[in-house]
Amino acid sequence: MSKEYFLALYGEEGINVLKTPPPYTTLRVNTLKIDMNEAIRILELLFPRYDIKVHEKINDLLCIPVNGPFNIQPVEKAIFVDNRCGEAILRGSHIYAPGVLGTTSDFQKNEIVSIYSISVPINRGTKTTIENVAEPFYLGNGVCQMSRREIFSTNKGLAIIITEGIYQTPSFENLPKNLFFPQNEPSALVAHILDPKPGESILDMCASPGGKTTHISTLMQNQGELIALDKSKKRVEELKSNVDIWESFADVRKIDATKAKQRFGGKKFDKILLDAPCSGLGQRPKLSFQEINVDSTALYQKKFLEIACEMLKPGGILVYSTCTVTQEENQQNIGWAIENLELELINQEIMIGDASEPLGLTQVFSPISHSMGFFIAKLRRK
Ligand SMILES: C[S@@+](CC[C@H](N)C(=O)[O-])C[C@H]1O[C@@H](n2cnc3c(N)ncnc32)[C@H](O)[C@@H]1O
């Protein structure tokens, strides 16, 4: 369903744009620990080839350009990765052993290989040719950190360092994680739209891995009450780890948000963030098009909207966001919410996306004309 969906929305040309990274990548700064000038100084030392700037409208976000496309020539030996790994490479990542599916030949440590992502995975360890893999997409060249044999006999470790990417952007793997949070532009806008204040009581319903939770706690200066929920043990552990690294005061709990009302008794919040689980179709770069079921996801999101509304104080604020582009999960769900729940749409103080029709007031981000596909609605409990 998803490839046809994109073809209908953006055409073949749009699909080709989706295969490229956005023009810049973004890092949010822990402004409780360092100011923006200090943050730029740290990054300029680490990445001297990049012109780093504060985002025009988001004052705690830094933009780092993605350079390219470069005209790079493939070498004879090649390795194949799946599309997910290909997307990570386009975002500046190196390649770890589990990501390598197959190769054209043997190679030793320190040899140079070309890297292709393929649309139909092959068994790990396969030796094949470029002609025999599905839709090979050339990503650049890299230096092997392991021999072919070592790569396929382990499940961890750095396998290939990208030395010449078609697109080049710094790898954030070694950045101090307590000072910088890699976060895409619309995600870094969401907490500003919620506009949390020190002393308020705030619920983050679907919080892992914690990009927005840590942001909200920074804007609250760790004062007041911030409860962050997620459903699964693994996701809660990831959230807890990021909250601890960021030294955020957020109170992390493993709770199914659709049952939050019972779990919190009659407790009501000043503000709620509902960054809903969604079909995730807004990602860019995008090389893979998996099957999705938009109707069941949209229905699930309505359930969260209902609970969120019930847990808000009168006059309280709900921000609803998704990283997807379907009308069902975005405009239609919000249209349903303002008709069926005690909620009204209100203005968003910072606009970066387009005002979305027919609702007005909400903002949508297209993965083609913006950095990725995203949706934000701000609502008030009547
Ligand atoms: C879009 S992600 C949230 C991203 C997060 N807000 C951030 O900025 O880092 C959606 C999250 O919803 C969680 N989720 C899905 N169903 C849930 C439920 N019933 N209750 C709580 N969390 C749920 C998923 O585990 C996932 O972590």
> What are the secondary-structure elements, in order, as H or E?
HEHEEEHEEEEEHEEHEHEHEHEHEHEEEE
The helical percent reads 25-40%
Distance N to C terminus: 38 Å
Q: How would a textbook summarize the main sheet?
A: 9 strands, mixed
Q: What structural category arises from helix and sheet content?
A: alpha/beta
State the CATH architecture of the largest domain.
Answer: 3-Layer(aba) Sandwich
**General form:** globular
CATH fold topology of the largest domain: Rossmann fold
Assembly form of the protein: single chain
Task: Let me know the CATH homologous superfamily of the largest domain.
Answer: Vaccinia Virus protein VP39
Protein name: SAM-dependent MTase RsmB/NOP-type domain-containing protein
GO molecular function, one term: RNA methyltransferase activity
Family: Belongs to the class I-like SAM-binding methyltransferase superfamily. RsmB/NOP family.
InterPro entries: MeTrfase_RsmB-F_NOP2_cat, MeTrfase_RsmB-F_NOP2_dom, PUA, PUA-like_sf, PUA_sf, RCMT, RsmB/NOL1/NOP2-like_CS, SAM-dependent_MTases_sf
